[in-house]
Each structure stands twice: as C-alpha cells, then as structure tokens.
Specification:
This protein is of the alpha/beta class and 229 residues long. Helices cover 34% and strands 18% of the residues. The chain is built from 9 helices and 9 strands. The strands form 2 sheets. A 6-stranded parallel sheet has the order 2-1-3-4-8-9, sandwiched between helices. A 3-stranded antiparallel sheet has the order 5-6-7. Helix 5 packs across helix 6. The N and C termini lie close together (5 Å).
Length: 229
C-alpha cells in the first residue's frame, strides 16, 4: 500500500494556514493532507501535537516539515506510522543536536535581526521582517496575512535537543529555498546532502509552499508515491 496521507507541520512565526495552497493540490493528487497546529511552546509539546494527528490516521503517513517544523518532524518522525520525511526550507538537526546548534556555524540570515520579544519567553517576527525577509516573493496583502496569523515561538524551542534524528533511518527529501533570508540556504544544502532522497532547489523565499505551491505539492506527491506503506 502506497502512502495516502500527508501530515504537514508548520514552523515558527507561522501556523497551519501556511499550507493552505498546498493542501488542495495534494488532494487533487489523491492524497489526504492534514496540517498540525503546533503550540510552539517546546519541542516536546510540538511533537505531541504532531503525534496526535498521526495517531488519528488509519494507515502510514508521510510527514512534511517547514522551518522549525523540520526539527519537529526530525523527532516526531520516529513514530512507527511515519514512513518518510520531506523537509521544506527546514531545520534538520542530528541526534543530540538542537536547532540553534544546527545552524550556528553559518552566517545568520537577514531575517534574524527582525525577531523581537513577544511577551515573557516568546519571540515573533516584525511586520517588516515578514515582508522583506520571510515571504518577500509573495504579494504584500498575502505577506500581511502571514504576519497577522503567525504563532509566536517560545525562546526555549531552538535550544531543545533531538533525541534521535528520524532522517537517519527513514527515507527523507529536501526542498532548498535558494533565496531564503530566514534560514541560510547553505545550511539547507548541507542538510539535504545528508539525506537519502532527492533534493529540489527552488528560487524562492523561506516559504516556497506559498510562492511556488505547485512545485512543492508535486515534490511531496512524488515522495509519497515512492514509499511502500
């Protein structure tokens, strides 16, 4: 049985609506697609949220993670129902590594300067940060929706460590966003090179699922079709 269900995991400064353009495209390809709503309060809490969705599915699933969501699927992907992982401009820490440690050796992207405190223990992106460095290749009105619906991130998240990196043992694919100003494209390329599956390089901002949803959906669908459930 081929994979028929895709579980989509959003990242920091976002929510499940970031997959709104990809979900109908996956549905048209015969896939059931569901978006997790991460609390963004800790790695463990986000993994619980992802597992809750996975547990509700009848068969095997493909997990897709964007940005911080890549760290989430790296941990949550150890679930026995998860048969493969797709990273979309996403963090891919190794076992025993945190998101911060994963990208620390690389020059910070411009968007990092636009992360500001958002209440005690949380941070969020400024409106200018979203427009100029997060979703710079989508129309301004769409960018402002991303800003308005973002989920503030608990500062502790990026320091939480992965216990066992699921991409080490399960088929994994990577979409590199070559014009990314939030996560350095260099760390994305280096992470992609460690994985077993195909790498797709898109000339996009940090959110190719919003600026190039057709390409993202097709890549996800091909990954799902290639896995035996």
């Amino acid at each position: 049985m081929a994979i028929g269900t895709v579980v989509l995991v959003h990242g920091a400064f976002a929510d499940g609506s970031c997959w709104a353009k990809v979900i109908p495209l996956l549905t048209k390809r015969g896939l059931r697609a569901l978006a997790v709503q991460n609390p963004l309060s800790s790695l463990a809490d986000d993994v619980v949220a992802a597992h809750r969705v996975v547990d509700m599915q009848d068969g095997p699933v493909l997990m897709v993670g964007h940005s911080w969501g890549g760290a989430v699927i790296t941990e949550a992907g150890n679930h026995p129902k998860v048969k493969g992982l797709v990273y979309v401009a996403a963090g891919a820490p190794d076992s025993g590594q945190s998101f911060d440690a994963w990208w620390k050796p690389y020059k910070p992207a411009p968007g990092a300067a636009e992360i500001r405190p958002y209440g005690e223990g949380y941070v969020a992106l400024t409106q200018q940060g979203v427009r100029k460095h997060f979703v710079q290749d989508v129309p301004a009105d769409e960018a402002d929706i991303v800003y308005a619906t973002q989920g503030p991130l608990a500062v502790r998240c990026f320091g939480d460590t992965i216990s066992k990196a699921a991409w080490r043992s399960k088929p994994s694919w990577y979409i590199v966003a070559a014009q990314d100003e939030t996560i350095p494209p260099e760390v994305q390329r280096d992470s992609a090179s460690r994985m077993t599956g195909e790498t797709l390089v898109l000339q996009s901002s940090h959110v190719p699922m919003l600026s190039q949803p057709e390409a993202v959906a097709e890549f996800i669908a091909k990954a799902a079709a290639s896995i035996e459930g």
